[in-house]
Design goal:
Blueprint lengths: L1 H24 L3 E3 L5 E3 L11 H15 L7 H13 L1
Antiparallel strand pairs: 1-2
Length: 86
């Protein structure tokens, strides 16, 4: 009796493990605005950054390449202030 009970419990555990493992391994789906299902992270792509962010990144890149002499702080501050104005 005990052997049959253990075998039955083992089969139930194996079935539950297979079922939940298959559900956990399935890729996430996201319903897009047009009603289709897409696989991937939810929310899609972020909005484009404002132009002043590109100016800041260009100033940092110039500094790292050695094309910008000294401290990039003034260039970055100027680009950030231009973005705050517009």
């Amino acid at each position: 009796m005990t052997r049959q009970l253990l075998r039955t419990a083992g089969v139930i555990v194996a079935i539950l493990t297979l079922l939940t493992g298959a559900a956990a391994a399935a890729p996430a789906t996201d319903v897009t605005d047009d009603g289709t299902e897409a696989i991937g992270p939810p929310g899609g792509l972020p909005d484009p950054v404002p132009d002043f962010v590109s100016s800041i990144l260009d100033s940092i890149t110039q500094f790292l390449e050695g094309a910008l002499g000294g401290d990039p702080g003034d260039e970055v501050s100027g680009a950030a202030n231009d973005g705050a104005d517009g």
